Amino acid sequence: MAKNMLEVKGLTTKYVTRFHEDVYAVDHVSLTIEEGKSLGIAGESGCGKSTLALSLMGYYFAPLHYMSGDIIVDGKNISGLDPDTVRKTVLGSDVAYIPQAAMNALNPTRKISDFIVDVIRAHDPKSNKNDIRDMARKRFEELHLPDEALDKYAVELSGGMKQRVVIAISTILSPKVLIADEPSSALDVTSQKVVIKMLREMMEKGFIKSMIFITHELPLLYNVTDDIMVMYAGQIVEKGTAKEMVFDPVHPYSRGLMHSILVPEDGTRDNKLIAIPGTPPNLKNPPQGCRFAERCKYAQPSCKFSAPPLIEFGEGRSYRCAYSVEHLKEVYASED
Amino acid sequence: MKTEEEMNVSENATVEEQETVTLDRRRDVSNNPLCLSGRAVTKIFGSGKKETVAVNRVNFDFHEGELVSIVGESGSGKTTLSKMILGLLPMTDGEILFRGQPRDISTNRKKREYWKNIQAIFQDPFSSFNVFNKIDTVLLDCINMNGGKDLPKEKKIEMMTEACSFVNLKFAELTNKYPFELSGGQMQRLMIARVFLLKPKILLADEPTSMIDACSRATILDMLLNLRDEIGMTVIFITHDIGLAYYISDNVYIMEHGFFVEHGSADDVILTPKADYTKRLISDVPKIHEAWDLSTVE
């Protein structure tokens, strides 16, 4: 059995607003990713996807606060460490992160090679600049990136190239987990494909051992990741393999999400789109029962009072609903 | 065309039921009268060495009651073209015909007359509203502009309630609220409620779903289809997402570097593309039932 690269147990983090209100944006999230595997996280804006990504780095600064739970990267528990230790020993080597606005992440007054020097020297202050350049050049070559890019400024690179360079910089230390938060949403379809191809190659060559990929584009997630996890209002509502999640979702929310997929394929025009009315609950004051109950057309009065736990079924699949899997499938079958 | 049964369904549907009503989208609109046409429409920015041809002698014919999509990547000239159609940007060359007659927007008064016939929904719902106006004022302005100034108050409220229920919003819950108190999806629906009250001949929707979630996206798309079917509006849908365009359009125009490289019915263009650019665009989009071939890129 492949070893677990990332193991998260009951992670809870909160934001504290300026009025001293607590917002639990990640609420008791547990997950595992094996070596060589990738996990996709889907959900609508504000469901906690990006906060989960930030929380998984173990690097907390106000207004985000760590509350409880364990983050274990390749056997090493990184939860609760102070930010400086995390920056020097975890970021880049254990966990690397590509933010949403990666294209704007580069300081325009510095050359690309300077960023690589920064990353490596944060972990090993005595490393030689020439060695670092050689290492960077070799890595760029392996990733089919032009090595002239190392001597360029960010403004001299195109959008897609900037994105690939940011990925190369953040993974220069071959991290165990790469967290990619919407790495391709600002790109055209062709540049997006190039970025995805590069990420896949990096997985194959072992430059990254496992990956968490966050996007709201479900067809992309389906093509990139092995497993998909759907989040709603700070909680996991369903988890399974990409194929199971897209073609056989169980939770009413995931089903709505998967039925909103529109791709240019024969049959798309006959699809029945399922719109989910309403908006997600305010996490300052989350509902006492099921968080999706307000918007769920199958909800019973009891759903609003008792919060369902995450129930495991089948191999590696889990869902969070008061109804049984069989019952939900029967209901869906009668609707189709 | 919708079958009789579907017509009954959509007429009798309650607010919740409307969420899942599907409409048959394969329609031939070529016999409908022309609503908007463009002849050699061109836009050049800058001059000399810095000259950029954003839209290059494009021709188009949009018919009444047609839902037509203009698809292209960023920088292809979609938004420049849409601004020229709206009369917000002067053309460098060419002509736009509205209902067969050359469009005249030479004075402010004529522009206002033209804008009664064409309305737009933009990408960013958060900057589409005047932040100082409450929602009632936003909707009331539309009724007043559309010649309903002297209607009794009850009638105006009834019209606003009808417009809100068309977009699955409850008017009673919106009174005395400001647009920024709503979510992105709700705001975009409020924009559609405005269009419902103004009843223009043409609606230009410029990436109306790119800033909202997949779930709310379905609602917006169905509402655009309802505008076309119930009011007979011509809807020009501008998008970079070829999957969305395929789902809702009667006809599709594919735009590359200021040119229309291909146009035709959605089924023809998407399922049997002829232009290389269209083929590449379709092959580069990740799909569900077909394998995504990554070997086509370097």
Describe this structure in words.
- The complex is a heterodimer of chains A (336) and B (298).
- By secondary structure, chain A is of the alpha/beta class.
- Chain A folds into two domains: 4-229, Rossmann fold (3-Layer(aba) Sandwich), CATH 3.40.50.300; 249-335, no CATH class.
- Chain A has helices at residues 49-56, 83-90, 112-123, 129-142, 159-170, 189-205, 218-224, 242-247, 252-258, 325-335; strands spanning 4-16, 22-34, 38-42, 64-73, 76-77, 95-98, 177-181, 210-214, 227-232, 235-241, 311-313, 317-319.
- In chain A, helix 3 crosses helix 4 (129-142) and helix 5 packs parallel to helix 6.
- Chain B is α/β, with parallel strands linked by helices and 298 residues long.
- Chain B has a domain at 32-124 and 202-296: Rossmann fold (3-Layer(aba) Sandwich), CATH 3.40.50.
- Chain B has twelve helices and ten strands.
- In chain B, the strands form two sheets. Chain B has a six-stranded mixed sheet with strand order 6-7-8-3-9-10, with helices on both faces. In chain B, strands 2-1-4-5 form a four-stranded antiparallel sheet, covered by helices on one side.
- Classes of the chains: A alpha/beta (336), B alpha/beta (298).
- The interface between A and B is large, with 44 and 49 residues.
Q: What are the main properties of this structure?
A:
heterodimer, A: 336 residues, alpha/beta, Rossmann fold, 2 domains, eight-stranded mixed β-sheet, 10 helices, 23% strand, globular, B: 298 residues, four-stranded antiparallel β-sheet, 12 helices
Q: Specify Rg of chain B, calculated over alpha carbons.
A: 20 Å
Strand order of the largest sheet of chain A: 6-7-8-3-9-10-12-11
Strand order of the largest sheet of chain B: 6-7-8-3-9-10
Average pLDDT of chain A works out at 91
Strand element count of chain B: 10
- Percent of residues of chain A in helical segments? 25-40%
Number of helices of chain A: 10
Approximate strand percentage of chain A: 15-25%
CATH class designation of the largest domain in chain A: Alpha Beta
Query: What is the name of the CATH topology of the domain at 32-124 and 202-296 in chain B?
Result: Rossmann fold
Mean pLDDT of chain B: 87
CATH architecture of the largest domain in chain A: 3-Layer(aba) Sandwich
Helix content of chain B: 25-40%
Q: CATH superfamily of the largest domain in chain A, please?
A: P-loop containing nucleotide triphosphate hydrolases
Shape estimate of chain B:
globular
Low-pLDDT regions of chain B: 1-23
Largest interface: A-B, 44 and 49 residues
